[in-house]
């Protein structure tokens, strides 16, 4: 997208903080030893970790409003802008698909099997895939619809998704429910994606599945509406801060109230979850905006701005690196072979910390290691735009 003329340092900081947190929770030393706040909720409910992905999609929405507003104002550029958005979204999708299939193809080659076998069990959807799909649809809506229409679309999405998940009977079950394997979204995932192409940890449902992509679009539209407001030049900074805090607080309250009937649930991306997470994101940006852009406290922002300007790049590399390193094996004294990453963790971390602290220190090291790479890129003004 074209570089926005108007830019918020607080938004870059907030994006970088979110991506760094995403990498932290995605890369523990041991999945069996994780502090509770760094884990996802078992099903209903919300931990700090459950807020990271919706925060990022919400930020994508804010960024769309900043990056595409000039194109939106000029109808002659609409088709060109939409084409670029589709191109970027498809790139994100295929980056995610590459991460999903990379190890499978390499293992097939090593085992002298057909690489086409990898496609038989590859996960079709995922985090980057969802970002790409949501980006395309939300960008088109932003370019083609007025702010009032976008708000109405958000409301309709949340209401329709609630109605579908609450009242539509699930074939084979006979009644609507929100349990892991018998809810409508899970049934659709099995029908469209098939169990061979869903999340490997479940096989019967996908947290980034087909139907739940609908409310994920709602999260991005929420961000777009905030971005439109934050770009306004006829509103002073104090009003923007007050408005963001108010909208955020009201949205959190609405989400908690809706939670009583339609539980907050990340895996299902429930409508109450959209409001709750979007509200907290609004409060978070309000705080960042007030500290950084209004009060001028900017020195502490650099580490996370460094993460924010190459957000997708570092997320992709953070997903690719363990896949590559786990293909390299180390022969132990007893003749067994251990993946390099596992061997390094067992040798350099586990002997010096308790299991849960070793896992955390490993994750922090991972974040700091990528910070060094991103700092070098930042100083050399290397920004890889997907």
TrEMBL record:
Keyword Transmembrane helix annotated: yes
Transmembrane segments: 12-31, 51-69, 90-110, 122-143, 150-170, 209-229, 241-261, 273-292, 304-321, 359-378
Keywords: Membrane, Transmembrane, Transmembrane helix
Highest rank taxon of the organism: Bacteria
Signal peptide boundaries: none
Cross-referenced PANTHER family: LD22376P
Protein name: DUF5009 domain-containing protein
Organism of origin: Pedobacter fastidiosus
Lineage, top ranks: Bacteria, Pseudomonadati, Bacteroidota, Sphingobacteriia, Sphingobacteriales
């Amino acid at each position: 997208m074209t570089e926005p003329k108007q830019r918020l340092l607080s938004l870059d900081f907030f994006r970088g903080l979110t991506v760094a947190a995403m990498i932290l929770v995605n890369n523990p030393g041991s999945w069996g030893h994780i502090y509770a706040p760094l884990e996802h909720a078992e099903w209903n409910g919300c931990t700090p970790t459950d807020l990271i992905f919706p925060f990022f999609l919400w930020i994508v929405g804010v960024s769309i409003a900043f990056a595409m507003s000039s194109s939106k104002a000029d109808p002659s550029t609409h088709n060109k802008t939409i084409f670029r958005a589709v191109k970027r979204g498809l790139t994100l999708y295929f980056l995610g698909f590459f991460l999903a299939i990379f190890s499978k193809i390499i293992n097939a080659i090593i085992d002298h099997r057909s690489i086409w076998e990898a496609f038989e069990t590859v996960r079709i959807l995922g985090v980057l895939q969802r970002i790409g799909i949501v980006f395309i649809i939300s960008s088109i809506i932003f370019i083609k619809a007025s702010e009032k229409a976008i708000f109405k679309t958000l409301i309709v999405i949340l209401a329709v998704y609630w109605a579908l998940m609450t009242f539509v009977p699930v074939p084979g079950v006979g009644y609507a429910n929100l349990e892991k394997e018998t809810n409508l979204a899970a049934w659709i995932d099995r029908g469209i994606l098939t169990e061979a192409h869903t999340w490997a940890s479940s096989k019967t449902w996908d947290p980034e599945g087909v139907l739940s992509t609908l409310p994920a679009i709602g999260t991005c539209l929420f961000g777009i509406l905030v971005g439109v407001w934050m770009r306004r030049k006829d509103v002073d900074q104090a009003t923007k801060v007050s408005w963001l805090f108010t909208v955020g607080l009201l949205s959190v309250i609405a989400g908690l109230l809706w939670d009583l009937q339609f539980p907050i649930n990340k895996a299902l991306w429930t409508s109450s979850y959209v409001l709750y997470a979007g509200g907290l994101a609004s409060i978070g940006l309000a705080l960042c905006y007030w500290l950084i852009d209004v009060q001028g406290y900017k020195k502490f922002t650099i580490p996370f701005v460094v993460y924010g300007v190459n957000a997708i790049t570092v997320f992709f590399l953070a997903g690719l690196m363990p896949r590559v390193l786990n293909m390299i094996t180390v022969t132990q004294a007893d003749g067994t072979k251990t993946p390099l990453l596992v061997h390094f963790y067992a040798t350099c971390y586990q002997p010096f910390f308790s299991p849960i602290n070793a896992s955390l220190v490993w994750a922090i090291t991972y974040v700091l290691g990528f910070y060094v790479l991103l700092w070098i890129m930042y100083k050399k003004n290397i920004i890889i735009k997907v």
